[in-house]
Design brief:
There is one protein chain. This protein is an all-alpha fold. The chain has a domain of 77 residues. The protein is built from three helices and no strands. Helix 1 runs antiparallel to helix 2 and helix 1 packs across helix 3. The protein is elongated and about 95 Å long. The N and C termini lie far apart (123 Å).
């Protein structure tokens, strides 16, 4: 029995299996990356659609939330018709609405800080001009 022939066959089999594993892993990673990119595009588009709905349907009554939601769903399904899971789509839209409301709150908070700083600066400037120290004689 020639061990070198058996060893040669084993190395070829192991090499083939190793190559198959590498190709499979590369394929899986490619599909995952492609999926992540697609999810990112969908999420970004939903955020844009939510912002557009906020501008198109300002708060003028009780139906605006429903109208905004329908607008966003219609826009998203026109762009990504393969989205068939309504619960998934709803959760993405709710996430975008929440992110937008948090962004608006943060901007309002920063604006409030700026306004209070301007008011404080104006008041201290006004107070300094009226309370100017004067020289007194001894």
């Amino acid at each position: 029995m020639d061990w070198s022939v058996i060893l040669d066959y084993l190395l070829k089999i192991i090499g083939s299996i190793g190559a198959s594993v590498i190709v499979t892993l590369a394929g899986v990673l490619f599909v995952k990356l492609k999926t992540k990119i697609k999810e990112s595009r969908i999420t970004s588009y939903i955020k844009e659609a939510v912002q557009a709905a906020e501008q198109l349907y300002p708060n003028q009554g009780t139906k605006t939330g429903t109208e905004k939601y329908k607008y966003v769903v219609t826009q998203v399904l026109n762009k990504f018709p393969e989205l068939t899971d309504n619960e998934y789509l709803k959760s993405l839209i709710e996430g975008a609405v929440y992110a937008l409301s948090e962004q608006v709150k943060q901007i309002a908070k920063e604006q409030s800080k700026i306004e209070s700083t301007e008011t404080t600066t104006t008041n201290s400037t006004t107070n300094n001009t009226t309370n100017t120290p004067t020289l007194t004689s001894f």
